[in-house]
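fyi for ur records
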Amino acid sequence: MRISAGAPHPLGTTWDGRGTNFALFSANAEKVELCLFDSHGRREIERITLPERTEDVWHGYLSDVAPGQLYGYRVHGPYHPERGLRFNAHKLLIDPYAKQLAGRLVWSDAHFGYRAGSARADLSFDRRDNARGVPKSMVVDEAFTWGEERRPSIPWRDTVIYEAHVKGLTQLREDVPPAWRGSYRGLTAPSVVDHLKHLGVTAVELLPIHAFIDDRHLIERGLSNYWGYNTVAFFAPDARYAVDGPLDAFRSTVSRLHDAGIELILDVVYNHTAEGNHLGPTLSFRGID
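which gave:
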């Protein structure tokens, strides 16, 4: 594939109709490799070193990459956990600015940057490749027709906030179309909107809807993470709440709620991530800086 310098901003991927720009921030990396995958996310088809670094942003432009392309990063650098540096290029990393993910995490010890069970704990180093079991980032087309959509812009003194979980609010409501229950679209069902308006609600605050991971200890017990406080990609709506494409499904929900005069607030907790504490897996941020 042909790669050129591209631009350091915006971060993440940007498709301009002809190709895609890739930009990743890392102040301490020594090299950043972009890994492209097939449409199923199982086979790496090309690995390309990002050619430029501008003020700690590594970037490159690929003219042959279009929306739908799956990718991840391998970031090279020092492994000194005692100094907060945990680079491990054996681990495929999720783009922190990805707006859509493909696939689910398949748990294994390969996701940890250190050797699980080692007496040296996270001071040890693991060389297993985790690419097969990690979700892939996806290049998206950010174009969206908002139509006449306008923000309600309700003054704070008049704001009434209703905190809700996407699935919890809609899954058991018989007045929501069956295919919409438990999804972003279910929030815009006429019966749900009428209920909120009847209560005098002006804003819905959604519990985490960003792409999140089911914790390993839950999976081992046959359970899942219901609440979502285990984010792995803050800019990607979680696909489990989407009937179709999660990004467009979420944007359509925002637009329809705004049309109904209802604002949307997102619950974002930056210290609740799927990488956990110092003994957590290396999935994204931990392996980037």
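Helices lie at 166-170, 190-199, 216-219, 246-259. thats all i got for now
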